Amino acid sequence: MITGHNIICFGSSSWQYPGLQQTTMRLLADQNRILYINALGSRNISLKLSQCSFYLRRIQRQFQQNQTMSEKTVVCNPLIIPFVYHSLTTKFNRLLLRAQFHRLLPKINFRKYILWVGTPTAAPFLDLFDPSLTIYNPVDRYHAFSFVNGDKIRAYEKRIGARADAVICTSDAIKNDMSAFNQHAFAVTHGVDVNHFHSALNQENKIEDIDDLPKPIIGFFGGLSERVNYQLIRKIACRYPTASIVLIGKQLSSLAELEGLQNVHVLGFRDFSLLPHYMKRFSVCLIPYHVNKLMEAVDPIKLREYLCQGKPVVSVDLPEVRKLKDLVYIGRDEEEFVEMVGKAMAEKSLSLAETRIKAARQSEWPVKMAEMAEIVNDAFMRKNQEN
User: Fold this and answer.
1) Residue 172, CA distances (Å) to 75, 178, 199, 296, 297 in order
2) What is the spatial order of strands in the sheet that 185-187 belongs to?
3) Distance from C-alpha of 274 to C-alpha of 329, rounded to nearest angstrom
4) Which among 68, 309, 327, 383 is least surrounded, fewest beta carbons within 10 Å?
5) Is 67 helix (H, G, I), strand (E, B) or coil?
6) How many CB atoms sit inside 10 A of residue 248's CB?
7) Phi/psi zone of residue 4: left (φ > 0), alpha (ψ -120 to 50 degrees), beta?
8) Which residues of 118-142 are buried (b: 16+ CB within 10 A; e: fewer)?
């Protein structure tokens, strides 16, 4: 395993988000010391009110003190100007970050460390560090997001890919993208805490905002963002009017297409600890994304979370989902997706539910941590041989 190291991680999102990089660092903190750097940002400048408030929150967070989460983990709020694509601000941000880490690294005794990069916007700042090893860990096809400067992100990824000693990707598609820049690119799909999700099956509790809804419940949890196909959800709601469509997650885009649907219930954000209890009420779990260049490179972590309870899952046709096609109902277009929801609701197979749970256990975090450790240790061996 990866033990006895200092690790600096440039995260693609904040420490509080229960994503791959954050979970990886929390687990590594058992045997290593972690400095987690909250996201630098990647959004284009926008004058929309929602984006102005986003920048205000980011600036406010930058002035918060670094947090000592445990004896082995420090979370850093980097002080930068959040206009990440402007050449002048990039030069100024280099000075700001150089000053911050010149003080911080000796203070926490990080004289030798692994640099773990989870965001391409860290590229202009990598030469401020002198790591013993550099790992790039992309969890999305970042350049395909609508709110970024795609050309800049591509250039950043090429720079990081060429510099990294190994690239750990979350899907085959991202691995193929990064193989153009680095021959040591590997795919390690998302891990899942099976016990966290499975244990809810044996617990009895009342959740009023879902228990009182008409059954069956067709559910989704995750960010209600531009990734979600709300027109598809509308078609499901209209085809199955006696079912309840439940959407759980922070609203990140317009839900206008769902207006007027009495059987669609948008519950909003719910804490990660509560998700297994909501999922227990789902008769069918949805992965209702748009299929595009961004999503074709996604390994949807919610797929394995759904499988932890053996639930029937209906998904759009994504390459990483296709690997589990015997356990998932896949809709190759909107009409087939809607039909598959009906088939999933009619499913009665207990053995198929058990097979799904077994499949989820193959992606438990200890398995994924071992896969990543093998890649990291191999990268150390190669680097030592080169030197």
Assistant:
1) 30, 10, 31, 10, 7
2) 67-70, 73-76, 33-37, 6-10, 114-117, 133-136, 166-169, 185-187
3) 25
4) 68
5) strand
6) 22
7) left
8) bbbbbbbbbeebebebbbbbbbbbb
Residue 213 is given by DSSP the state S
CA pair distance 257, 99, nearest whole angstrom: 48
What is the C-alpha to C-alpha distance for residues 252 and 266, in angstroms, rounded to an integer?
A: 13
364: which DSSP letter?
B
Neighbours of 175 (CB within 10 A): 19
Query: What SS3 state is found at 232?
Result: helix
Tens digits of pLDDT across the chain (387 residues): 899 999 999 999 989 888 899 999 999 999 999 999 998 887 766 556 555 565 566 556 655 666 676 789 999 999 888 778 888 999 999 999 999 999 999 999 999 999 999 999 999 999 999 999 999 999 999 999 988 999 999 999 999 999 999 999 999 999 999 999 999 999 999 999 999 999 999 998 899 999 999 999 999 999 999 999 999 999 999 999 999 999 999 998 999 999 999 999 999 999 999 999 999 999 999 999 999 999 999 999 999 999 999 999 999 999 999 999 999 999 999 999 999 999 999 999 999 999 999 999 999 999 999 999 999 999 999 988 876
Please state, as a whole number, how many other Cβ atoms lie within 10 Å of the Cβ of residue 4.
8
Q: How many helices (H) and strands (E) does the chain have?
A: 14, 14
Phi-psi region of 313 (alpha: psi -120 to 50; beta: other; left: phi over 0): beta
Distances (CA, A) of 303 to 42, 262, 299, 311: 26, 27, 8, 10
